[in-house]
From TrEMBL:
Identification of the protein by name: WWE domain-containing protein
Organism: Cladocopium goreaui
Keywords: Membrane, Transmembrane, Transmembrane helix, Transport
InterPro entries hit by this protein: SLC30A9, WWE_dom, WWE_dom_sf
GO molecular function, one term: monoatomic cation transmembrane transporter activity
Length: 667
């Protein structure tokens, strides 16, 4: 029972008691005065309780917010997290004695989140307390003492060969890496009978005939090449592109081949440019431009040189010489956990042209109304410190000048393309919105200003997104969910780019926007990436010049890896969080608002989207979210799911005939 209910009931009981006492006293005294006094007391009790309850209800309805200092502390705590860039548009409301509703718009650091997800994919999955603890300790020991794992493996192998049982080797117990090694036969290497120290040739007692003739003092060419081929060093080469970047796999192989042959120079061509790697001078030279960059080698990829990252000049992009997709190595990033056939089918459906965000409506013409100085003034008034923003941290290259130029002439990289006027008019719409000091102008202008710290590919992406948002381009429920799926496809593209960089498939700087555009242009039509992203990627000259196109088996491998990296589980959780956020303040055009409208039209059991106890709040769980995605884009839930949701067959939750018709029309 709530405090309000208890107070109201108590006041009623107390008033009744007072009234009865007044009547009794009046009867005994044969006068109406006690009854009048009792009535006054009753009215006073009811009035006081009513005022108290009215005040409590008013606070609950009108909203009582947290103190400013407390809100500021919460914002600072959130922004201290590496994955959070900015927190704005904060709203708080006290909904109980110890309960607060906190609403805010959070801008996340996609690169930090992507790197964490890639790291998480390599961590051991929980498999019981002892095994998980053993795995964590093993990973930490391996990181701190790389040689320890090799020593432990050798010790355990020797003990097994001596006849000891597997249980006597504690490092092996429950460790999947040791168990995998145990399945393989440990070969006993036979050495040359001439005591030269080399392994004997297969089927012979010596390494070669020359060794026998010279009593081990010299060896034949076949023997020499075999020894070189058996050298299993893990040397890795790096080139200085402002920060040390791993040289791609193809060039690594060229360098190793040259060293085996005794050569000190490696020549190759890329994008019409001849390059020379001088192993004596430890330099990579562009023979056309004369540009020279330092190179170095390390014993393994774990010994990657760490230096303070520096952004390279936009024009130096032509100095990077990438190959293309290589076969996966044993050191590749671990694949995503195995999914059920149902989720695999859903991923294949979502990552197809059938679920693709179409091109947005073209921006309407927006005339130039402000001078360049007035444009700069608009940004200075709304974005703190914008006058100090530098394009790619290059001294003297102030972003404010590029912002004013983009307003007047558009983005230089897109001049003469179909997107030229589209982006220019959107940029002008954004600036005019800020000039008129409309709601949220500071947030929109800050997003655009921060985009001009980076290359024009990033600038175009942000200008188009913010501009279309300001123009009020609205969508129905299916369109909003399609856009959410598109956002997760973009995240998967970023993860795929980082995956390729980490494996040396390509070389790029620390912010591989252009390589992401290369992947977007080549894989976009295969996996249903947003059409506006594909259009921008096709116009990226740096992506076109720096990287070769993906086609054939290379594209198929990239698509398969892309599907592994696409996080369908996170998508389902995000969908639940979005629709469950519905409240009285939700806009009809928002995803929660459109979901309520869709559920009313397409669901037979409408109450199933609410919580079971009160049916007052939206409470969609992940199993229903998966079924909703299937119904939206396939017209019906999976045929073999056979599951129930809150006691009802999933198939019976929807008006399947209507959903199927809508899906066919959309297709």
């Amino acid at each position: 029972m709530s405090t309000a209910t208890f107070t109201e009931a108590s006041s009623g009981v107390l008033s009744s008691v007072v009234g009865l006492i007044g009547l009794g006293v009046s009867y005994q005294m044969q006068t109406g005065l006690p009854d009048v006094v009792a009535s006054i007391v009753m009215a006073s009790i009811v009035s006081c309780v009513s005022v108290f309850l009215l005040g409590k209800s008013g606070n609950a309805l009108l909203g009582q917010t947290l103190p400013t200092w407390r809100v500021k502390s919460l914002i600072e705590t959130l922004e201290a997290h590496a994955a959070v860039v900015n927190v704005y548009d904060v709203k708080t409301e006290l909904v109980g004695v110890d309960t607060v509703r906190f609403k805010a718009e959070v801008q996340f650091n996609t690169q930090a989140i992507t790197e964490r997800m890639m790291e998480a994919s390599q961590e051991l999955a929980p498999a019981g307390g002892p095994l998980q603890a053993h795995g964590m300790l093993a990973m930490r020991l391996k990181h701190l003492f790389p040689q320890a794992s090799r020593i432990a493996c050798a010790v355990c192998s020797n003990r097994l060969m001596e006849g000891s049982s597997e249980d006597e080797c504690p490092l092996r117990e429950g460790d999947p890496h040791f168990l995998e090694a145990d399945r393989k036969e440990v070969p006993v290497e036979k050495t040359c009978l001439n005591s030269c120290g080399r392994p004997a040739a297969e089927g012979y007692d010596s390494c070669c005939r020359t060794c026998i003739a010279s009593s081990g003092r010299s060896h034949g060419p076949v023997c020499e090449s075999r020894v070189l081929a058996d050298d299993k060093t893990t040397e890795v080469w790096w080139v200085d592109l402002g920060s040390w970047v791993r040289i791609d796999n193809e060039t690594q192989e060229r360098i190793e081949a040259a060293r085996r042959e005794g050569r000190t120079e490696v020549e190759f061509h890329a994008r019409g440019h001849p390059y020379l790697i001088d192993l004596l001078a430890m330099a990579q030279i562009n023979l056309n431009t004369g540009m020279q960059r330092d190179i170095k080698s390390t014993e393994s990829e774990e010994d990657e040189p760490h230096e303070e990252d520096e952004e390279e000049d936009e024009e130096s992009d032509n100095e990077i010489t990438p190959p293309w997709l290589q076969p996966r190595s044993s050191r590749e990033v671990a694949a995503a956990p195995t999914r059920s056939p149902r989720l695999v089918a859903l991923v294949n459906l979502l990552l197809s042209p059938a679920v693709q965000v179409p091109l947005p409506a073209e921006a309407t013409k927006e005339d130039e109304k402000l001078s360049q100085e007035e444009v700069k003034k608009v940004f200075k008034e709304h974005v703190k410190g914008v006058e100090k923003y530098l394009f790619r941290d290059m001294p003297g290259q102030y972003s404010l000048n590029f912002l004013a130029s983009a307003y007047q002439n558009g983005l230089r990289a897109f001049n003469g393309t179909p997107m030229d006027n589209h982006l220019k008019w959107l940029m002008r719409s954004i600036v005019h919105y800020g000039h008129e000091k409309k709601p949220g102008a500071a947030r929109y202008l800050k997003e655009v200003a921060e985009a001009f710290l980076d290359c024009q590919a990033v600038q175009a992406r942000v200008v188009e997104r913010v501009g279309l948002e300001l123009l009020g381009v609205s969508q129905d429920f299916k369109g909003l969910v399609r856009a959410m799926v598109g956002d997760y496809k973009v995240m998967a593209i970023k993860m795929l780019a980082i995956d390729h960089l980490s494996r040396g498939v390509v070389s790029d700087d620390g912010n591989p926007t252009h390589y992401e555009n290369r992947l977007t242009a080549d894989l976009g039509s295969l996996v249903g990436l947003n059409k506006d992203d594909i259009r921008r990627a096709d116009l990226d000259e740096h992506a076109r010049n720096r990287f070769g196109r993906l086609h054939g088996p290379s594209a198929e491998k990239a698509v398969q890896r892309f599907k592994e990296l696409f996080d369908i589980e996170a998508l389902a959780k995000t969908f639940c969080n979005e629709v469950n956020s519905f409240n009285e303040n939700s806009s009809n055009d928002s995803l929660p608002g459109q979901f309520m409208k869709w559920a009313d039209e397409k669901m037979t059991q409408k109450h199933s989207i609410f919580d079971e106890e009160t049916c007052c709040t939206v409470d969609v769980q992940e199993p229903l979210a998966i079924a909703l995605l299937e119904v939206l884009f396939a017209g019906k839930p999976s045929n073999d799911c056979g599951e129930e949701y809150r006691g009802v067959q999933v198939q019976d939750l929807f008006k399947l005939e209507l959903c199927a018709v809508v899906a066919m029309v959309a297709a």
